[in-house]
Amino acid sequence: MARSTVTPTTVTEAGIDLTAVDVAANTTDGDAFAWRAHRLLYVANGDDAEITVTIVTAATVGRSAHAVDDETVTIAAGGARLMGPFGPEYRQADGTVHIDYAGTTISSVTVAVLDA
Fold first, then answer.
1. Cα torsion at 104, 76, 92, 37 (round to 10°)?
2. What is the spatial distance between Cα 10 and Cα 25, in angstroms, rounded to a whole number?
3. What is d(CA 42, CA 32) in angstroms, rounded to the nearest whole number?
């Protein structure tokens, strides 16, 4: 299978209901969204154990092309995190940002991408 593409939601002055715009995370193959400098990532962990969210970097540095470390965020059971914005080092060759998920139970994870 392939990564799922998450469509961004624009935040307005009136705000948004995150539970109305989040979608089930593709915890098997990961998710992706089109990179923009102002985008934020919201992940809610509805499971009973913590999960790790990895935002994959595509950047390298130096003549030896050393990989820039991925960003990893731990989300407690029942918790949620708002992350970003993400710099250009997270933009993959196809113009998207890749998100991976790991944990002992990751069946109730939801995700939203927000345009601020």
1. 170
2. 19
3. 13
Q: Which residue is associated with the tokens 């993400």?
A: 86
Q: In three state form, how does the secondary structure of 9-63 look?
A: EECCCCCCCHHHHCEECCCCCCEEEECCCCEEEEEEECCCCCEEEEEECCCEECC
**What are the tokens at 71?**
């960003």
Nearest partner of 29 among 113, 106, 115, judged by Cα: 106
Residue 54 neighbours by CB distance under 10 Å = 15
Instruction: Give the Cα-Cα-Cα angle 114, 55, 25 (nearest 5 degrees).
Output: 60
Report pTM.
0.92
The first and second tokens of residue 46, run together, are 């509805």
Taking only the tens place, the pLDDT of each residue in 25-51 is 999 999 999 999 999 999 999 999 999
